[in-house]
Write a structure and sequence with these properties.
heterodimer; A: mainly beta; 7-stranded mixed beta sheet; 4-stranded antiparallel beta sheet; about 0% helix; globular; B: mainly beta
Chain lengths: ~110, ~110
């Protein structure tokens, strides 16, 4: 069955470095989401795309985080510079419009 | 915005017993309530969901109930098995935008 793909699965970086995560949604899913999940907590939405447009980035720390989905398919989330508090699982999900969200396996980020 | 509270945070049950997890939400405009299961190192997997026009839904050993008046919903797992051990998250979605707000999670341990 179709799945959301994410890479890398694990990333270790030093603070002040730049990191980037990639997500490939399920084919045909117009809506793509990036969530951050701190250990022991539920996922929190960072940014939501409808096709190539951002529809909600109210919780994205825009001074250091950026996200793009240039052709309305795959997406990249970037952090520059990384801080110690950014250590978390970064999850990508996709859905058809206003429908069930399916999650990828996530990228575990550790900032040293 | 929406706020979702989930209880208990941990739940230990004997194999074969039932497990119940409860969630409350704050925004009466929420109309969709999914439950996700997350195993260690993996992304959340949808296990069951319920929409606001339905009071109960069952799928084999799992069921979800919704009380819109009280703004709470519950997950029931019967005849628990060791493979049910995981972290379970409830979520609520307001009609506009498809944004999910997650509860804090319940770590379920099924003892053989």
């Amino acid at each position: 069955e179709a799945e959301v793909a994410q890479s890398p699965r694990y990333k270790i970086t030093e603070k002040s470095q730049a990191v980037a995560f990639w997500c490939d949604p399920i084919s045909g899913h117009a809506t793509l989401y990036w969530y951050r999940q701190i250990l022991g907590q539920g996922p929190e939405l960072l940014v939501q795309f409808q096709d190539e447009s951002v529809v909600d980035d109210s919780q994205l720390p825009k001074d250091r985080f950026s996200a793009e989905r240039l052709k309305g398919v795959d997406s990249t989330l970037k952090i520059q510079p990384a801080e110690l508090g950014d250590s978390a699982m970064y999850l990508c999900a996709s859905s058809r419009r206003q429908d069930v969200q399916f999650f990828g396996p996530g990228t575990r980020l550790t900032v040293l | 915005g929406e706020n979702v509270e989930q209880h208990p945070s941990t739940l230990s049950v004997q194999e074969g017993d039932s497990a119940v997890i409860k969630c409350t939400y704050s925004d009466s405009a929420s109309n969709y309530f999914p439950w996700y299961k997350q195993e260690l190192g993996k992304g959340p997997q949808l296990i069951i969901d319920i929409r606001s026009n339905v009071g109960e839904k069952k799928d084999q050993r799992i069921a979800v109930t919704l009380n819109k008046t009280a703004k709470h919903f519950s997950l029931h797992i019967t005849e628990t098995q060791p493979e049910d051990s995981a972290v379970y998250f409830c979520a609520a979605r307001i009609a506009a935008g498809n944004k999910l707000t997650f509860g804090g999670g319940t770590r379920v341990l099924v003892k053989p």
